[in-house]
Each structure stands twice: as C-alpha cells, then as structure tokens.
Amino acid sequence: MTPPRLLDIRGLTITLPQRDRRITAVSGVDLEVERGEILGLVGESGSGKSLSMLAVLGLLPRSAKVGGSVRLDGEEILGAPERRLRKLRGKRVGMVFQDPMTALDPVMTVGAQLIETLRIHEPGLSRSLARRRAIDLLGQVAIAAPEQRIDQYPHEFSGGMRQRVVIAMAIANDPELLIADEPTTALDVTIQAQIVELLERLRRERNLGLVLITHDLGLIAGLADKVTILYSGAIVERGPVFDIFANSHHPYTRGLLRAMPGAEAEGERLVAIPGTPPSPASRPEGCPFHPRCRLAVPRCSAEAPAFRWFGQSMAACHLAEEAARMELRETAHGV
Amino acid sequence: MTRTLIRRILMMPFLVLGIVTVAFMLSQITRGDPLAALIGERQMGNPTIVAAAKAKWGLDRSLPERYAIYLGNLVQGDMGTSFRTRQPVASDLSRRLPATLELVVAAVLIGGVTGVFLGVLAAKYRDTIVDTVVRLLALTGSSVPMFWLGLLVLFIFSVRLGILPGPGRLDTRTAAPEFVTGFFTIDSLLAGQFAKFREALAHLVLPASVLGWTVTGIVARLVRASMIDVMSQDFVLAARAKGAGAWRVLLNHGLRNALIPTLTILGFTFAYLITGAVLTETIFSWPGIGSYAVDAARSLDYPAIIGVTIVGGFAFLIANLLTDIAYAIVDPRVRTGGA
Q: What does the UniProt keyword field contain (chain B) (predicted)?
C-alpha cells in the first residue's frame, strides 16, 4: 500500500449564501499534493482558488457549506471540529497571504507575532527560547540583522521584507504543507523573483508540499511541478506543468497562455480572452466557458463536458482535440 | 512622535490664550446687564450706587482695558471675584473641579470598561441575541434622559432598597477629608480614614454609573463597529491560520486594533463631561463645575462664566494631549512617525 498523499482533495464543493439562495462557488474540485511537490492553482479572480484553500483549513465563514473530502496525510479534516483544525493550522499547514501589507498585525512587533505563532502550538516554550527561534526564523527567510529587526513593527519593513516575515510565520512550526495565496502579486517584480526563490529553497530544504495559488502563469512555469486550472469554481484542465504549457487541450488554458506577456516573439501580440468570467451566481449552462470560447459549438451550451485524459493531463472540453491545434500565437498581421 | 508632542505642548499657551480671549469676548457680547444682577433691579435707578458698583467691579473701564487687566490677573492665577459667591473664582473652581474630576474619572472608567466589554461581546456574537441586547443597551445609554435615569436609580437603590446613599459626596454630617487631591476617595485613603473612603465610594457609585452609562453606550457601539471592521482584515485571518483560538484572535489582535479609535472617543468624552455633567451633578447635589456653571449663568456671573469656560477649554486641550500620548503608546505607527 502506498503511503497516503500529503494533501488529497476530492470533490470539494463550496456553496455560499447570497440573499435568499445559495450559490455554488466551487464545485467538484480534486487536488493532490505530495511532499516536496509544488502544485500551481491557476484561475482568474473569483474562480474559487482561495476559497478552496481556506476550506482546507476550515477558515471559511460559517455561512459557507462545504462538501467533498479533504485528507491531510490520510486523515479526513473536512468538517473536523475546530479544536482539531486549530492544531493543524500553522502547525502542519502554513499559509502565506497575498498582501503582506495587511497580513501582519500593525500593532504588534514582528517578533511578538512570530513568538505567538510558536507558542500557540508549543505553550510550554519559554519566552527567551521562542525569541531565539524567532530570530533564527527571520534569518532563514534571509532577513538581515534579525536580532534588531525582530523588535520592529510591520510598518518598518518593506513589502518584500514583510512577505518574508509572513513566510517565516508560515514555516515557524515546521509544517509539511504550505499554502501560498498569490504570494507575489502585491510585490515589485524584482522582489517577486526573490520570494519565488525563497519558496523554492524552503520547499527543497524542508521537503514541503506547496500549493501555489496564482494567476501568473509565468510563475507556475518556472516553479510548479503540476498545475490545475480553475474556471468559475470548477477545474477545466490539470496535469504536469510541461504538458499543460506545451500541449494544452483546453481553450481557456490556451487563452491564458496567449494572454501571458513575456513569451511572445517579436511581431506577435498578446491576445486577451474576450469578456469576463461569470460570477458563480450566473454561471451559464453547459461548459461555463462557452460564452467566451472561440471554438464553442451549440453542444457546449447544452452539455457540460466530462474530463478526458490526454497523456498525463486531463481537460474538460468537448473540443479538446481542436483546442490542442489552436494557434498559441498570432502574428500582428494575422487573425 | 516626541517632536510632535513637544510641538503640541509648546502650542498650548497660545491655545489657552485663544480660549481665554473667546470666552472673555463672548461674555461681553451677551445681552443682559450684570449690574442688575449685582446690585439688584431696584438700585439700578440710583446713579451713585451704579457708579460705585461699576468702579468696584471695573465695569467703568473700556473693553480692551478690562481684557488686559483680566489677562494680567489670570497670569497670577487670579480669575476675578464671582459676582454671586463673592469669592475668588479661582478658589471656587479649585474646590469644585476635583469633585467633577472625581465623578468624571469614575464615569469614564465605568463607561470605558463596560463599553469595551459589551462592544467586544456584540462583535463576537454579531447578529445574535447578544448583539441585539448590547445594541439596545447602548441605545438606551444615549437616548434615556439622564435626569430621569438619575432619579430612577436614586429612587431604587437609595430610597427603596437603601443599599446606596442619596445625593452628595458624603453623608451630610461627615466632614470632608483633608484636602490633598480633592478626590474624596483618594484623600480619605491618604488620611487612613477607611470608613470615610467607603462612604465616599458609595456616594460615587450612583452618579458615576449614571454618567458612565452614556459613555458605555458610545464606547460599546464604537468598539463593536471597529471590532467588526478589524476582524474582517487579513491579519485576523492570518492569525487564525496560525492556529490562534477565537478569543486570542479577538482580544490579542482584534481588540488591540479596535482600541485605537476608541481612545479618541474616550478622550473627547472625558473633556466633554467636565462641563457636561451638569444634569448628573444637579440631581445628585454634586458640588462640581457643572452645577457651578449653571448657577453662574443664571446670575450673569461673568467672572465665573469665563472661568468655567476656560477650565472647560483647558480640559479639552489636556484630554487631546493625553489622547495623543495614549495613541503613541498603543499605535506603533504613530510612535515612529511613519506609516
């Protein structure tokens, strides 16, 4: 028998109340992460990426109803009692938030916040030892002069440095799984690379499983082992990162790749996906992407596509074969 | 921040001068002749007496002259003589201010503590029955007339149940403790008179609670609102994601941040109550500034009116300064001057 996966999510479904009805924000999402593996979770705003990860830690508002299964190291944690979840949060699962400007308490020193993180899970830990460990953690995330920095407040740190502090808090109790929710979105480009490097190093050194939530495909390409693309609360395509980038079978993924700056050759231009993603409240029938899809046929609006395997990846599209032949690039004269 | 504070303190004499000037001028443009109040309506027809009284009280001088004299005296701590009590205003005020301060300090303490407590509860159990009850309580705090509430509690606790004393700072036959701070509770303790301390404290309970109740209402609503605001912020989610329990998140992260706006209101309330405790002081026969101000206004006692106005304005200045200092202690972003 193979050892259980670090994180194994099956059929995760989240509904939220909206006025007099419930809307399905996430439906039937499957995700797996092994130790030492980086999973990229990609989607536009509102696609349910962050909701799914908050659901893992039981951090959704009480009004949210969650179904399916979330196993951590084989143990079912979905719907586990708060006391159980509290022991997991920050201990076995660390979380890095999008905006380091707001993820730290402005009225506590970074040291106090780090020490709090340590002592929540190790109440017997002495203050002086906790402090030493906190200084050590700041050093591990490459913050210079941690002995001095530890007594400073978040506003005395730059954005990149704050994100390092947030990461230090996330890894403080040596978790097995790290969930990073758009960890670089709020940062300058030059700082982004440093944070990515830091995450990659931590993954290597600690054999962390890492879920990287992002809408930056470039980040995924450089970092992730596998990628899952969400659209309007459901998975549209998933697979090893190379397969997806080289040979995607979903028009939405194709569209994202075409819209990705940086990879285009001279004379080519970026092509945006027309329209905006539907809100979960007004999700169209059939394939949710069909109103924006260049390939859509009548069947797409009538029948929701099932997943089909293509080599090691899978995609939910009636026209996957045609999608795979779609030109990734168009010349400026073309179209 | 230190520099800001020093600048604020250096500014204070000018602000005080402004307050004095405004108070003085306002008293000059009000209608009503203080002479009539001073010597009586009947004597107003007697030019000799009018002239003598005018000369005695300096009312025969021009306005700038009187202003200059007043300022000169004020610098020496002389706020003139009350038309009504025939006592120096400064000594009247210094006897009455501690009474008001003791009452207001107790009221703000009671109101602050209960307000924060209720506000936290309401935020924690938002949209439940707890929240509704707290909001109702807070509403009564700011809408029930204080004179009515004062009479009601006097009737219940003093007359009916007899567990708390009636009006006044002490029982009628008890002598005031030796003046040190003017706070009867503190002075009696300093003198080692524990029975007197208990008596002073018992007398303080009702008026301070009635006055504090309005503070409770204001603070509870503010704490509830700012708690709810703070609790929706990322760092609260981050704290939960580290495994912090609900109460730890609420108090350690939520309340600490929510207290910052609350401080402003507490400081403001404190200053406001110095002169705003009139009704409570009247009902509970509390010999403070508020009742003094009312008496002064009734009898066109200008020196006393100006004196009270200056004290009230000064209270705002001090309260603002203390609020700023408290801000610096609570909010590190203010302390280092950055953001």
A: Cell membrane, Membrane, Transmembrane, Transmembrane helix, Transport
Q: How many CB pairs under 8 A join A and B?
A: 84
Q: Is the dihedral of CA B239, B243, B244, B246 positive or negative?
A: positive
Cβ–Cβ gap B257/A95 under 8 Å: no
What pTM was estimated for this model as a whole? 0.81
Q: Pick the residue from chain B with its C-alpha nearest to A53.
A: B241
Set of chain B residues whose Cβ sits within 8 Å of the Cβ of A166: 238
Residue of A51, A92, A99, A105 to mutate for B, most B C-beta atoms under 10 A = A105
So what's the pLDDT on residue B338? 43
Hey, what domains does chain B have and what are their CATH numbers? Answer: 16-75 (no CATH), 94-336 (1.10.3720.10)
CA atoms B286, B288, B293, B295: torsion sign: positive
pLDDT for residue A331 = 47
CATH superfamily of A5-228: P-loop containing nucleotide triphosphate hydrolases (3.40.50.300)
pLDDT in tens, B121-176: 999 898 899 999 998 988 887 788 888 888 898 899 988 898 888 888 888 888 88
Chain A residues with beta carbon closer than 8 angstroms to that of B231: none
For chain A, domain boundaries: 5-228, 254-325
Amino acid in the structure at residue B98: P
pLDDT score for A265: 58
Q: Taking CB atoms and an 8 Å limit, are B238 and A104 in contact across chains?
A: yes
